[in-house]
Amino acid sequence: MKVLIQRVCRASVTVDEEVTGEIDQGMLVFVGIERDDNPAMLDKVAERLLNYRVFADEEGRMNASLRDINGGLLLVSQFTLAADTRKGLRPGFSSAATPADAQLLYNALLDTLKEKHDKVAAGRFAADMQVSLVNDGPVTFLLEFQ
Q: A biological process (GO) annotation for this entry (predicted)?
């Protein structure tokens, strides 16, 4: 599983002119689910996202987590994160999970995050989404889980 985190002042996802999710200060999280990913990973992923220190503390150091600031988390599925881009001029997707498997894990991750944190919003799996954000920093991290 690959997870791209962007620290944001605000972010939203729109599908067919309907806002499906929006947050103020927090993290926009794009998730790419790969073939070997499984439900046993989800608690670890959720805890790392909620506790990853990407926000400024009182001294201006990047030492506060999403939980510490009580920020929002906007989860967006993005299968292109699972692409193999090591060679050639076209990405390969043989390492990506099937759409059915990816949707199950995405929904389970979303449920896990909602159980652990109050401010969780989401895009719509496999939809053509328009994502708007104001990146804070910019601060962007790629986390990989196996």
A: D-amino acid catabolic process
